[in-house]
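Our working data are protein records whose layout never changes between entries. Getting from the letters to the tokens is the skill we practise here. To make this concrete, we reproduce a full record directly below:
***
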Amino acid sequence: MPRAGSDPSSQLNALRAAGLYRHRRVVEGHANGARQRIDGHDVLVFCSNDYLGLAQDPRVAEAFAHAAREYGTGSGASHLVTGHHREHHALEEALADFTGRERALLFSTGYMANLGVVCALAGRGDAVLEDRLNHASLLDAGMLSGARFSRFPHADVAGLERRLAHAGKERSLVVTDGVFSMDGDLAPLPELVSACARHDATLVVDDAHGLGVLGANGRGSLEHFGLRQADVPVLVGTLGKAFGTFGAFVAGETDLIELLIQRARTYIYTTALPPAVAAATRVALELAQAEPWRRERALAHAARFRNLAGEAGLPLGESFTPIQPVLLREARSATAASEALLEHGVLVTAIRPPTVPEGGSRLRVTFSAAHAEAEVEQLVEALLSVITEMGTVPNLHGTAATPGRGRCPRETVPSRPSVPHDSSHIVLLHGWGLHGGLFAPLARTLADAGHDVSCLDLPGHGGRRFEPPFTNLDQLAAAIAADLPPACTLIGWSLGGMVAAKLAADGHPSIQRLVLVAATPRFVACDGWAHGIAPEIVAEFAAELERDYEGLIRRFLSLQARGDDQASELLRQLRTSVFARGKPDPAALAAALDILTQADLRGPMSRIRVPALILAGEYDRLTLPGAGAWLASHIPSARYQEIKGAGHAPFLSHPREFLAALGEFLPSPVRVQARS
């Protein structure tokens, strides 16, 4: 007799009681990727991994049908017997070319690819070190490899290095997801590459959720960070997500692929994919490259969702990818929310332990190019209604969801670029306490030169009030990121430069170029400063705002203009611009400045891979001497230029010199004269 409670019935009852019971749903008939008929109900689906909307594309389906008629519905054997078809070989060559690697090798599933790679490359006497939040297939592979297996805290490079040092002379394999499947955040790949180089370890990246979506050409998180085959020797990718078919592959140098053919048991001892799947995947791969609007739309839907859901107070995670977790903590809450959403005609799966840690249950929302903007709004409204009705779901700030918020706001990020790809959308981030009106002359000049220009508000001033308030720079940067267009040059001035640097360091895919103007070093840290801004400066600034707002702005603008009090007419114009939108909110400003007391960007600076320009004024009284040069020295892609005679705001005091430097840097030069 089995022990009490060990029989299947008792175990199933325990799962139901804990809110951990899983159900299969039956999809009926034809599905269009976004709307499907499931369990007899027509629903809007926001939990598929079909990021590019290719799973239902008729061109991919026709390629599959044509190949099935010609080659049959199965391969008949493993690759090493009679199963390796010319369609498989052609797809492997196409995948190698797409990823920029010498060769690629097809596997039947992503799970089998990860098991095959890790178990072939590591065994008894070796060490396998993995991120704690890796996909289950990677964790299982590490445990089954026979190597000494350990997990380091999520994205903790220092924790990894301690384990690598402890490994000593053991051959070490470091394994990570590129984009983490449940949180949607990116692994710190540049730092992992450096750590592996220092300890002679081999890095394996499973980019299942990055390929097709991230990077200037959709080549994934490695392209996003500017990494090559020499940096990441082993790349794993799947075909059943962004590419809309089935299967997986490993890409790397020729010797790696040959070794896997000889030693990867999940490749040797399983039937090859049907050739028709390979033929369909080649078409999907071609479409993904030829139609970049697909990844732009998926990313823009995610940004739009973050904008709307954030303003509605929904508890979001930290991700700019199409994976957007809504954090509900308890398994029962996630299950209840998922079931309630289904009643609203929206399908979002509840993710619970053991897929995520205890206390980490969430709704895993995903976006596809197949979704429409109106459907994103419908999702947010359904989520807001459901969570409001539940009433006790904590958000990121530890408070309950606020009832009675009504319909979600309508300010949006476009799902497609509003300008051609050969043009330049420029986004301006101003300094705290001063809205984008200070950029008006610069914005008009850039617009006259043919650029699309946006000025985004930071907390404390302007149309957006940024509620709920933020508690750290990550949250603040994520809110700003929600308003970025799909491709842009980001120009950050003063404290706005710090936010711009943070976004670029995090590798936001919208940022194609970065310009930092007078990025005040007391907020980014340099030699002689530990990090952050002194708390007494925050308190003094907030108190003066309350006491004499107009006097503070007048004195501040005098510094921005020319470094003295002589530019009275310019100051008058600037004051009119600043006051036009009302006084700032001192509490919001103080809260925003308080974030900076904790901010230290010394480490992230080296992650900035996009072309960057650092501009500084010779007589800047608000920025420490040499700060611009220090910034440029810490950003691999940056060049530094000092504008002679200029102060803290060279775009105001020396517009021609400023525009000349900027014009050399932008995709199309600025040839019009600067306005005064």
